[in-house]
Design a protein that fits this description.
This protein is mostly helical. It has one domain. About 80% of the residues lie in helices and about 0% in strands. It has helices at about 1-25, 35-45, 45-65, 70-100. The longest helix is centred in the C-terminal third of the chain and has 29 residues, at about 70-100. The chain starts with a helix and ends in a 6-residue tail after the last helix.
Length: about 100
């Protein structure tokens, strides 16, 4: 049960990352990863997001059935919130700048 909970958290974090990226892009932000930015231009945000979720789901299934692979998912669970938090901070700073507030 613990393994399933971890995998569910992993999938939810991937969804949160996609949503946060979309919010940033709608605010005229830019994807920092050059490969992903190139993919967005070539195939579009929706297709890249679907591919990301399929890869995440594949990793989750692999981690569920492969002994020791859950540690890879744990690593992602530790990293993804940092990426989401970074995006959130950047979007917040951009919003403040748009509202005329002083930013650091």
């Amino acid at each position: 049960m613990f393994k399933i909970s971890l995998l569910a958290v992993f999938i939810l974090l991937c969804v949160a990352d996609i949503v946060q990226t979309k919010i940033g892009l709608r605010m005229n932000g830019q994807e920092k990863n050059p490969v992903v930015r190139w993919l967005f231009r070539k195939v579009g945000f929706v297709k890249v997001s679907i591919a990301k979720l399929l890869v995440a789901f594949g990793l989750a299934v692999t981690a569920y059935y492969t002994p020791g692979a859950i540690f890879t998912v744990l690593l992602f669970i530790l990293i993804l919130p940092l990426c989401i938090l970074n995006s959130f901070v950047l979007v917040s700073l951009y919003k403040k700048k748009d509202e005329g507030a002083r930013t650091i």
